[in-house]
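Sorry to interrupt, but I need a hand with the structure work. It will help me judge whether the discrete encoding reads sensibly. Write everything out right here, beneath this request:
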Amino acid sequence: MAGSPDRIYADASVERLFTGATVITFVRTILTLAIAVWGAYEASLTLLVVGLVVYWVGDSIDGEWARHFDCETRTGAVVDMMCDRLSCGALYVGLMWLQPTGWLSDEPMTWIGIPIAIYLFEFMVIDMYLSLAFLAWPIRSPNYFGVIDRRIYLWNWSRVGKAANSGAFAVILLATGWVWLGIVIAVALLALKCVSLKWLLDLGLPVPEREKAAAA
């Protein structure tokens, strides 16, 4: 996490819904959902994998665009989180729908829903709460949470943290088709998020002063 104070801290004067980054976010989400629906209709694992790639690449591009063109906003950060979870949910539900048996072997995969359900709970509930917590401080996005708590930032929003939290589960599950390994990874990620949540709750979320809130 690096950047000047002008980049790290929010500026109400630049807050808006549509920026180059959010347009990319909306486009990549529409493409991802379209591919997910197409993959479900065609019963195609290949299309679901393509959808995951579009989701990951698009998520990387919109973030890099926002930083390069200095159009990071709190609005854009929240939109990005919501679209991530919509895309992720559609693709993983599609994966559960299409894969009652293993894709690399004849090993039964009846229980594939277990690791995916654990992962979706972690990502769409606990991680969403953690990610939205940045709104309690005057920073632009979770990418700058290091100025609030470096441990929480490193575990969740550093480049390594993001890769481990979002990509590792899908890549390993798709590459091996092993339910037990998927469960181990999903539970490990859930534990990581629960520890991060404890740190956040110990830190405490600042509450805006009533007079300021009334004036706004």
About this structure: The chain has a mean pLDDT of 87.
